[in-house]
Amino acid sequence: xxxxxxxxxxxxxxxxxxxxxxxxxxxxxxxxxxxxxxxxxxxxxxxxxxxxxxxxxxxxxxxxxxxxxxxxxxxxxxxxxxxxxxxxxxxxxxxxxxxxxxxxxxxxxxxxxxxxxxxxxxxxxxxxxxxxxxxxxxxxxxxxxxxxxxxxxxxxxxxxxxxxxxxxxxxxxxxxxxxxxxxxxxxxxxxxxxxxxxxxxxxxxxxxxxxxxxxxxxxxxxxxxxxxxxxxxxxxxxxxxxxxxxxxxxxxxxxxxxxxxxxxxxxxxxxxxx
Length: 274
Prior knowledge:
By secondary structure, the chain is α+β, with helices and mostly antiparallel strands. It is built from four helices and twelve strands, in the order αβααβαββββββββββ.
């Protein structure tokens, strides 16, 4: 009886070993990086249109394209608060102007004014002179006020981080469009002015962990390559509030990349900072 049991046990073990040796496909392993954005899906705009990906905002797309977010919203008929959805195609080009249809008109010969009409026209011209002068003066005053940077009046800028400036702004086409402030990892990154967080993530290629603040309809500021983000989208922050920590995400150096955008265009931050 014992001999028979031993035979059954030996047979069972041999079958089990054969089953194990026949397995060639490794067991499935769940990814630990499901929450990290895939580099290949990050915003990299080439051409005249862009297909919205998960995590994108109109502000981040406009920032990457060097456009004013209001311009993109207007050209794509996207109303405030500028909600976009994955799969939506955003045009980055100006809408084409409709071509005027060519029509020929036959001009009717102008009638000669009568004596009474001449008197009325002269009186009307004299009465319109003060009104015209006031209008011209109003237009001149408006041009003067528009020439000033009135949108920056209520903004008080401060330095976004302590450290050494290792790269400065360049006006060249492929130049550096901000300031690079080097310091140890974990150094506090501060909001350079009060504003609202319109982007917090890592979807913009080349910027790593990025925060974009909207200060008003004209100005945005950006804080890139952070090791840690401490605020989320729609958060309202005060000037000097800690919003991130310096790092080296998508950067060969541990430093903050700080940019200021005026109506979508990069401007020299050194002209705004004290």
